[in-house]
Write a sequence for this structure.
């Protein structure tokens, strides 16, 4: 199960290539829909927010919606579809969730059943799509703010950890919060709180900084997901709620049917990162 | 000299009594002007910003103004008067800096020469008044935000430290930044960054958090000014730039003539604390 969760993790690295391949989000989505783009989406349409995808049967959707509402930091909902409707009009012009992501994963009873580039054959009238904000948007803001992110500089995945912070349960959905960690100086940590507090739709302000043991992390050098990253003298670890939390929560309950994006293959929305900022 | 600086420190404790004695700032100032109030000003007109005072001869004023402009975190300027003009119209209706503070200190060559309740007899045509924001305003915001401030709960003065953070010099004004310290949990530290970042006119976001040695504080239990306060397990020290910095800088250069408020006896302005908030 843990391997499945790990395989399902989400956000692309802010530092990957592809940068600026498409002028805007709609062009990128149309190329993806035509099958002309089968790679990760990092940097593909700069400035536009990308989203994590979870598609669940309607029977589970209300509980999952309540779960997201109760846990906005790990589960920042950008959009929820009508049952059976593949369109997500609030995220952009003509967004069809069945075709507009380059790679999907089909899950049956918690096991990976298929990886596909189009889910029209798997579509059902009871499916509800959830699109959640991605830390890529806030990492972009941090880098624009002059804060070096080591995992980005080193081309690594961000380090992620299970914590002893419990999410607020809803129906069958429950479990610990997963956090991502970025090491930085205290002065940068203070700036990073200010920068990310302005983007609650992409995880918002950190949930912790300093001593990892206080949130149940026994060994900072052994992340549960992603890659370990060095913490230099004079730096402190800063922890943000992570979008892996809802994925881990969904996978842990092994729903009979579920579709997610493949890791790094995100939905590119027409929402600008700058529009997600409160100020 | 250090004793003089210590005697000149400024802000009242946010927790002191007097709370709500006057309905608004103007009423409080008029009572002070009539000599009907000879005590500290903490809580006197709730919701209104109070300010630290430094009055310098014009020959030094330009350099001090540049010093404040270059060091906005320790020296947040609320107002500067015209030379020789005792009125501060931007801070409220009919604010006369010669009479509207309950107690002043007259300094000659860095030595305390007199403590008076009215400076009309000391007024000169070349004097320039500087009013600087006071951490009382942001402490109020922190307490409203549900963050306990231990020094306030315990009726102590806040702990203050000289650091190895150098201010940006201007003319004869130079010296290390003084910081105030408030211990809190990491979660509260994150909230406190957000709350105080919104009030740059009263010191703004912290300048440091965590390891005191990183900013040159050898012993957190021995503050240079104010009272030591316990840091409980699971808490970290959070450091803000402190209004004692400009006072220490002015005192250290021992100007031939200078007037300040007496510690805790502040100027009550018509500016609402809420108006100092960016958002």
């Amino acid at each position: 199960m843990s391997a499945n969760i790990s395989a399902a993790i989400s956000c692309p690295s802010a530092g990957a290539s592809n940068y600026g391949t498409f002028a805007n989000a709609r062009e990128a989505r149309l190329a993806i829909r035509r099958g002309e783009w089968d790679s990760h989406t990092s940097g593909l349409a700069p400035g536009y927010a990308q989203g994590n995808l979870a598609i669940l049967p309607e029977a589970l959707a209300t509980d999952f919606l309540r779960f997201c509402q109760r846990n906005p930091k790990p589960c920042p909902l950008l959009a929820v579809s009508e049952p059976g409707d593949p369109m997500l009009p609030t995220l952009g012009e003509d967004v069809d969730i069945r075709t507009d992501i380059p790679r999907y994963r089909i899950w049956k009873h918690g096991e990976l059943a298929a990886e596909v580039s189009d889910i029209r054959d798997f579509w059902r009238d009871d499916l509800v799509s959830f699109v959640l904000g991605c830390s890529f948007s806030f990492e972009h803001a941090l880098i624009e703010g002059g804060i070096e992110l080591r995992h980005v500089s080193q081309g690594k995945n961000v380090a992620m950890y299970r914590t002893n912070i419990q999410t607020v349960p809803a129906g069958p959905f429950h479990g610990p919060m997963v956090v991502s960690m970025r090491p930085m100086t205290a002065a940068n940590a203070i700036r990073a709180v200010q920068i990310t507090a302005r983007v609650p739709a992409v995880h918002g302000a950190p949930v912790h900084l300093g001593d990892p043991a206080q949130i149940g992390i026994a060994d900072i050098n052994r992340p549960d997901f992603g890659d370990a990253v060095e913490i230099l003298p004079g730096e402190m670890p800063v922890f943000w709620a992570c979008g892996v939390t809802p994925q881990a929560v969904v996978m842990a309950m092994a729903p009979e049917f579920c579709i997610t994006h493949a890791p790094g293959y995100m939905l590119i929305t027409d929402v600008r990162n700058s529009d997600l900022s409160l100020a």
